[in-house]
Design brief:
The complex is a heterodimer. Chain A is α/β, with parallel strands linked by helices. Chain A has a single domain (4-93, 171-324), classed as Rossmann fold (3-Layer(aba) Sandwich), CATH 3.40.50. Chain A contains ten helices and twelve strands. Chain A has helices at 48-56, 83-89, 111-122, 127-140, 157-169, 187-204, 215-221, 239-244, 249-257, 321-324; strands at residues 4-17, 20-33, 37-41, 64-73, 76-77, 94-97, 175-179, 207-212, 224-229, 232-238, 306-309, 312-314. In chain A, a hairpin with a 2-residue loop joins strand 11 (306-309) and strand 12 (312-314). The relative contact order of chain A is 0.13. Chain B is globular. Chain B has a domain at 4-76 and 172-177 and 204-319: P-loop containing nucleotide triphosphate hydrolases (Rossmann fold, 3-Layer(aba) Sandwich), CATH 3.40.50. In chain B, the strands form two sheets. Chain B has an eight-stranded mixed beta sheet with strand order 6-7-8-3-9-10-12-11, sandwiched between helices. Chain B is built from eleven helices and twelve strands. Classes of the chains: A alpha/beta, B alpha/beta.
């Protein structure tokens, strides 16, 4: 087992809004080994992006607030770092790819200048060397280096996203956080980007957090996966275990909701009902009003995390802790 | 064998741009049988939405025929078109942009009824609105609610109710679930299926999501850069795609399953510009099998096997 690069423990982040307190991330715990990719899966408002912003220390404050928890990166707690120290880590040791390639680039700077900017900021190199490195990086992501002189609007969506990836990777980060990196892309372009990310993972041993709502992308690229619902991780497992034996009714519901291209099913089995209002998370298990297997206890008590098999965690009363204690 | 409710013949829609003519829809022909769902798939900019809109004359076709129940509606005048639209409705992609924020649900859903003066008494209109809300699974309590009070799934239900108001025979669904989360998406897909079974509707289902299209469609048409490149039964297309573009498109879907074979065909480059496209096959530049003939001559959509249409010069050779 690879050594843990990042260890998130009991992380809770909330937003204090006029309508009340929104617990965006509640008691989140996970770890990532060197070269490992973890998928964070959930629907709108599940807290995926807030988790990423929490690790980067970019939660907008106010209204955001990290209430508790620890984020160990290479043994040091990021939450105890000063802003100045964080700035040296961001874009250097940890970088992030945002969802929308159309808005995350500067429209009035050439693409190679944008890649070089990060390199200049974090490495002791001359302007010229930085630019040369930037062009290498642009080539690495599969764009001819001469095109670095062009501006973002001259690029297609897929190419822009590759420039964003080039920026994120230009300082050889140890951890890459990708927030829905392919959601805005067409499927054939998505395939190109996924292939590129896999190659980078193999070549540079970059660890990744892949935030997505697409279980297909998870099966394709991730080693581990955390399923989130209203700020809680409801299931956390190795990808194989999760796909072969999904335990939480919400996870099962997600699988029932996606049309399967390989099989011929006449009807989908969606999860009934809607996501609860984030300021009024139901008591007990947050999923209980939509859960087909809800019991009395689910309406009263928030389930604890139980290790059902090695490395396969679930927060659900269907799997009582007593039965699985070793 | 049911009859064809819609026949599209040589439909073209060009847009004038400063750089030249943009061939959004370029000589597209297909038909839809009564009661079936035809899926129209393709990537952004391939012309699928423009096709859907041109069929309803929400954009005026540059040329070509749209025969609905045997009559070419392209020749219809305003009054005839208004009459025809009672039978042809559309559901839009973005449930946030397609509802007037200053109208409440009752007003939105009753608008088609009032415009077409379907009922004389106000009470009947309200009854019909409530009935429609019931059909799409919205509680009547929401009658006076405004769109901003609803989540995406419910808003899309409002769009469905509005489209159903005039008892249409045919509905164009333009990416109806793309803006929704998967669990909500599944609810809407099931709803559309139930309504189709109950009312015997015909759908043109436009989407970029191949798994969704496969799930809902009886037959599927694949578009690339303004052209239909392949059209057949959904099973045939997924089991044995004929066109090299369809093959690449299908192979690129990440399958949510462990040990899925990793046989993605990675296409090089991007979709070329639809402005002043050159002669020959539109897919030429990215095709693995391209030959000289593909550049010289535009392949026609032809019946390769019964009910299987493909526009590729090399299909016989590739299938061998």
């Amino acid at each position: 087992m690879a050594k843990d690069l990042l260890k998130v423990k009991d992380l809770s982040i909330q937003y204090n809004t006029d309508e009340g307190v929104v617990k965006a991330v509640d008691n989140m715990t996970f770890e990532i080994g060197v070269g490992e990719t973890i998928g964070i899966v959930g629907e709108t408002g599940a807290g995926k992006t807030t988790t990423a912003l929490g690790i980067m220390q970019l939660v907008p404050s106010p209204p955001g607030q990290i209430v508790q928890g620890e984020i160990f990166f290479k043994g040091e707690d990021l939450l105890k770092k000063k802003e100045e120290e964080m700035r040296k880590i961001r874009g250097n040791k940890i970088s992030m790819i945002f969802q929308d390639p159309m808005t995350s680039l500067n429209p009035v700077m050439t693409t190679e200048d944008q890649v070089a900017e990060v390199i200049l900021l974090h490495q002791e190199v001359s302007q010229k060397e930085a630019l040369e490195k930037a062009r290498d990086m642009i080539e690495t992501v599969g764009i001819p280096r001469e095109r670095g002189k062009e501006y973002p609007h001259q690029f297609s969506g897929g190419m822009r996203q590759r420039i964003v990836i080039a920026i994120a990777l230009s300082c050889n980060p140890e951890l890459l956080i990708a927030d829905e990196p392919t959601t805005a892309l067409d499927v054939t372009i998505q395939a190109q980007v996924l292939k590129l990310m896999k190659r980078l993972k193999d070549e540079f041993e970059t660890s990744m957090i892949m935030i997505t709502h697409d279980l297909g992308v998870v099966a394709n690229i991730c080693d581990k996966v955390a399923i989130m619902y209203t700020g809680y991780v409801v299931e956390y497992a190795k990808v194989r275990d999760l796909f072969e034996n999904p335990l939480h009714p919400y996870t099962q519901g997600l699988f029932g909701s996606i049309p399967n291209v390989e099989e011929d099913e006449k009807r989908l089995n969606p999860i009934k009902g809607l996501m609860p209002d984030p300021t009024e998370i139901p008591e007990g298990c947050p999923f209980n009003p939509r859960c087909p297997k809800a019991m009395d206890i689910c309406r009263k008590v928030l389930p604890d995390r139980v290790e059902v098999e090695e490395g396969h965690f679930v927060n659900c009363h269907l799997y009582p802790a007593e039965e699985y204690k070793k | 064998m049911s009859k064809n409710i819609l026949e599209v013949k040589n439909l073209k829609k060009y847009f004038k741009t400063p750089k030249g003519m943009l061939h959004a829809v370029d000589d597209v022909s297909f038909f839809i049988k009564e009661g079936e769902t035809l899926g129209l798939v393709g990537e952004s900019g391939c012309g699928k939405s423009t096709t859907g809109r041109a069929i309803l004359r929400l954009v005026e076709p540059t040329s070509g025929e749209v025969n609905f129940e045997g009559k070419n509606i392209v020749d219809f005048n305003g009054a005839q078109m208004r009459e025809a639209r009672k039978n042809m409705q559309i559901i839009f992609q973005d449930p946030y942009a397609s509802l007037n924020p200053r109208m409440n649900l009752g007003q939105i859903i009753s608008e088609p009824l009032l415009i077409n003066k379907v009922y004389k008494e106000r009470k009947k209109v309200t009854d019909r609105v409530k009935e429609l809300m019931d059909t799409v699974g919205l509680t009547p309590r929401l009658l006076n609610a405004f769109p901003h009070e609803l989540d995406g799934g419910r808003r899309q239900r409002v769009g469905v109710a509005r489209a159903l108001a005039l008892n249409p025979k045919f509905i164009v669904q333009d990416e109806p679930v793309s803006a929704l989360d998967v669990s909500i998406q599944a609810q809407i897909l099931n709803l559309m299926q139930d309504i189709q079974d109950e009312l015997g509707l015909t759908y043109l289902f436009i989407s970029h999501d191949l798994s969704v299209v496969k799930h809902v469609s009886d037959r599927i048409a694949v578009m690339y850069l303004g052209k239909v490149v392949e059209l057949s039964d959904y099973n045939a297309i997924f089991r044995n795609p004929l066109h090299p573009y369809t093959q690449a498109l299908l192979s690129a879907i990440p399958v949510p399953r462990m040990d899925a074979p990793d046989n993605m065909i990675i296409l090089e480059g991007d979709v070329p510009s639809p402005v002043n496209p050159p002669d020959g096959c539109r897919f030429y530049g990215r095709c693995r099998y391209r030959q000289d003939i593909c550049k010289a001559k535009t392949p026609e959509l032809r019946e390769y096997e019964p009910e299987r249409f493909v526009a590729c010069h090399l299909v016989e050779e590739l299938q061998r």
